[in-house]
Amino acid sequence: MNYVFPTTFFAYLDLLGFSQFVLNLSAQEEFQKDPFRKQQTLLYYYNVLEPLVNGSIFAHKSIPSPENVEPIKNYNNFKVKISELNSMIVSDSIFLWTDDLSIEGFTKLLHVVKSIINTNMLWDFGFPLRGGISMGSITYQRIDWETPKINAISTLVGDALVKAAAIEANQDWAGCMLDSEIVEYFKALDNSNDTIKYLEQQNLINHYKCPLKTVPSDAYVVKWPEVKGKVNLSLYDLPITMTFQRNGPILETSIQQKLQNTLDFVHSLQNILD
User: Fold this and answer.
1) Best-predicted range by mean pLDDT (28-42, 80-94, 234-248)
2) How far is residue 39's CA from residue 31's CA, in Å, rounded to a whole number?
3) Least C-beta-crowded within 10 Å: which of 33, 83, 160, 245?
4) Cα dist. 173→77, 91, 119, 121 in Å?
5) Tell me, what's the pLDDT at 72?
6) How far apart are CA 183 and CA 193, in angstroms?
7) Separation of alpha carbons 221 and 88, rounded Å
8) Which superkingdom (predicted)?
9) Cα separations (Å) of 243 from 15, 25, 92?
10) CATH label of the domain that carries residue 221
């Protein structure tokens, strides 16, 4: 059966360093002698990651959204809508997508992405997450077979995935960047910048010079650290550093740069709070 989403918001999140983590396990003598133990170690991670993703989605089952997006003074007059969010985990990649291009769906997507990145940075077995959010089409295919050896085949294709993956791969930090097409879409939708201002007020996104592998670019990014009240964001320094050191001491300059770029982003938010 095919599930077609002609227009959707799509988030692609990648666990930085996870592939190397898997290879390191495979190279260790103790796991070569006991492949089952190696798989149990990997399953331990997925048994935590999957509830994190599903829990983040469930926690934001009902998202408060504005009655309308103009004028901005009405943004405190909320109505509650239930917006569906779809997810899939494949190895070190997390896919999330909405059913449509509504403000409710996009708001929920941002809440969930923020929750996943923030939690993954802080828990003891986490890895740095880098992602991109785009808009476009997605088709999901699922085929159920009668044979017991093949239960199902799932296929996920679409330009939304391709664009989000390209945005993710071009960044030089642990963070999540929005496609500029999304910003232009909302500006055209309400003939203003009010929707983007609303999302900024909800601490979901902020404008930042995003570090890219080429030249830094001004863009909107997910404001994943929790910045409510007078929070000392330097408390993030140690857990962020530890996630980057999940595979051992950082020796590569490129990884050191990604870590520094991530810390710089968090510190810039502290300046806003102060």
Assistant:
1) 234-248
2) 9
3) 33
4) 36, 20, 17, 13
5) 40
6) 8
7) 22
8) Archaea
9) 10, 17, 15
10) 3.30.70.1230
Sequence letter at residue 195: T
d(CA 272, CA 274) in angstroms, rounded, equals 5
Task: Indicate the pLDDT class of residue 232, thresholds 50, 70 and 90.
Answer: confident
Could you list the residue range(s) of the whole structural domain that residue 65 is in?
2-273
Structural domain tally of the chain? 1
Taking the C-alpha atoms of residue 178 and residue 266, their distance in angstroms, rounded to an integer, is: 17
> How high does pLDDT run on average in the chain?
83
| DSSP-assigned states of every residue in 111-164 | HHHHHHHHHHHHSTT---EEEEEEEEEEEEEEEE-SSTT--EEEEEE-HHHHHH
CA–CA distance, 136 with 92 (Å, rounded to integer): 23
Asked whether residue 152 carries a pLDDT value surpassing 80, the answer given is no
- DSSP-derived 3-state class of residue 4: strand
* Distance (Å, whole) CA 82 – CA 69: 18
Question: What would the DSSP string read from start to end of 163-222?
Answer: HHHHHHHTBSSSSEEE-HHHHHHHHHHHTSSHHHHHHHHTTSEEEEEE-BSSS-EEEEEE
Beta bridge partners of residue 217, listed in sequence order = 210
Place of tokens 């990648």: 14
Contact between 205 and 179 under an 8 Å Cβ cutoff? The reply is: no
